[in-house]
Design goal:
It is an enzyme of class 2 (transferase). By secondary structure, the chain is an all-alpha fold. The N and C termini lie far apart (about 70 Å).
Length: about 300
């Protein structure tokens, strides 16, 4: 009897399980890039309004994560890296996750619209819809281009932040969007190279599964070469400057070097060192994106103290 009650207690949902549904690591990227988009926009926002806006953008990102976990519960039960998530582990039911995600979606979009402007609230609603319906429900299971097109959802936050400040879209916000949009494929394909068995077992048509690792390596290099000039060109917009430009040149040179190394490796080499190069490229890609947005933030700070050049 005591064993049964222990199991029941162990399977009960905890506060941390609902936090896990929000995908906090993904949310941190959403919050940071949205914050940068808001801060570098030309129209100043009151600090309290800015704080509230970022809070509701974060909740919207978390709502997307909860709805993603609700729909992908079957996949998460199969993949090794996701089996311990709240739903496959049995601590949160699919119905609870769905209700949680829908409630947060409605609250975040409505409150963002009321606190800032209608356009930003609608933009957040569209982002949630794109991630949950277009990417999760359709593209993820239908095409190896899932992460390419679906990556747009993760690239919208800086545009939403910009919209909070300006009420619209501009070349600069599109540049930030493209930076994340073009970064997403090489970032996730590097992960897929050393996680191929997970996607294969879950029947997710990731490029490594449908076209093989060699084709994936070519695509990583191709997208990296497309990304680099876009990243550097952002330095010549109104939100760029010499600090950002120097950061972009160095980071993209290193990113291209890593992509070339991945492209030139055989499967025998990768398996021999347990995909060390691919893992190194994946983790560097996180630093790469953070460095670009941190440099944009620094440029804005320098301009406020009269040290901006552009």
């Amino acid at each position: 009897m005591s064993d049964i009650s222990y199991i029941q207690q162990d399977n009960e949902a905890r506060f941390s399980d609902y936090i896990a549904l929000l995908k906090p690591r993904v949310m941190s990227l959403v919050v940071f890039t949205a914050f940068v988009g808001l801060v570098v926009a030309p129209v100043p926002v009151h600090p309290f309004v800015g704080f509230v806006a970022i809070l509701f953008i974060a909740l919207g990102g978390g709502a997307s994560g909860a709805l993603n976990m609700w729909y992908d519960a079957d996949i998460d039960r199969v993949m090794r890296r996701t089996r311990s998530r709240p739903i496959p582990a049995g601590r949160v039911t699919e119905r609870e996750a769905l209700g949680f995600g829908l409630a947060l979606s409605g609250i975040s979009c409505l409150m963002l619209a009321l606190a800032t402007n209608i356009f930003s609230g609608l933009f957040l609603a569209f982002t949630i819809f794109f991630y949950v319906v277009v990417y999760t429900m359709w593209l993820k299971r239908a095409t190896p281009q899932n992460i390419v097109i679906g990556g747009a959802a993760g690239a919208f936050p800086p545009m939403i932040g910009w919209a909070v400040s300006t009420g619209g879209i501009a070349v600069e916000s599109v540049a930030m969007f493209l930076l994340i949009f073009l970064w997403t494929p090489p970032h996730f394909w590097a992960l897929a190279l050393f996680m191929k068995s997970d996607y294969h077992e879950a029947k997710v048509p990731m490029l490594t599964v449908t076209h093989g690792r060699t084709k994936t390596r070519r695509n990583i290099l191709a997208y990296t070469l497309i990304l680099a000039p876009v990243a550097v060109a952002t330095g010549f917009t109104s939100i760029g400057g010499p600090l950002y430009l120097a950061t972009a040149i160095v980071m993209n040179a290193l990113f291209i070097k890593g992509a070339i190394e991945i492209h030139g490796r055989s499967e025998a080499q990768a398996e021999a060192d347990k995909y060390a190069t691919e893992k190194r490229f994946f983790y560097f890609s996180l630093i790469y994106l953070f460095a670009h947005f941190a440099a944009l933030l620094a440029e804005e700070g320098l301009s406020h103290i009269g040290l901006g050049v552009w």
